Amino acid sequence: MNAAHRIPALPDSPVARHAVEYVRSCESEPIANHSIRSYLFAALIAGHEGLKAGTDFDTDLLFCACVLHDLGTSPSAPGKQRFEVEGADIAVEFLTGHGYGARETDPVWEAIALHTSPGIAERRGVLALLTRRGVAADFGSGVDFVTDAQGKAAHLRYPRLNMVTALVDAIVAHAARAPQAAARFTIAGELARERGELGAPTTMELAATASRWGA
Question: Nearest CA to 115 among 78, 74, 82, 161?
Fold first, then answer.
């Protein structure tokens, strides 16, 4: 198959397989699919930027950072802090249970905790950069180099299913659980404010609808 039509394969290691099983057990299908597509786009970005697996980044760690990045929106999250931080904490617990130490889990924690922080994540190493850009790519940002065939293949395998609204709903529900989970000027705080004061759709939903992939 022509490279312009291919999308990356998912890693087939035990930790990668268990990560997919884990997110599918505690996240809705739209959010789980978004997390997996985020890895596919992150891997395409890595190739486009000349970054090599095994040299510049660890494939399993990138996969886990992307696939686990929204665990903080799941009902299993404590609901006491920002969803990005709680998701990062849960991801570290998951990886620790699979035998990883702090040397591997610290960059994953940082990548997940910073995935909604443009301009910061990109300066905290390759893992944080690729995770941030992979997540953003699934919202249609920075994907000019991705072919229509690659985009179609990713979405046929992992459909969107009105992902953006499902994710906003989950973030707002998490934000309602504690004041610390929805501080002003955080993603959660602003989405909760927009839903509460302005009603749906939020700015995020409107922007996604107008993006390359849609909502």
Answer: 82
- CB-facing half-sphere around the CA of 186: CA atoms within 13 A: 21
CA distance between the termini of the chain: 29
CB proximity list for 5: less than 8 A, separation 6 or greater: 147, 149, 150, 153
Integer Cα distance of 5 and 151 in angstroms = 9
Distance, in Å, from the CA atom of 13 to the CA atom of 4, rounded to the nearest integer, reads 26
What pLDDT, in 10s, does the model give residues 17-76? 999 999 999 999 999 999 999 999 999 999 999 999 999 999 999 999 999 999 999 998
- Contact in structure between 104 and 59 (CB atoms under 8 Å): no
- Ordered by where they begin, the domains of the chain are 11-158 (1.10.3210.10)
pLDDT in tens, 132-156: 999 999 999 989 899 999 999 999 9
Q: What tokens does 210 get?
A: 């107008």
**CB contact set of 43 (below 8 Å; sequence gap of 6+):** 8, 62, 134
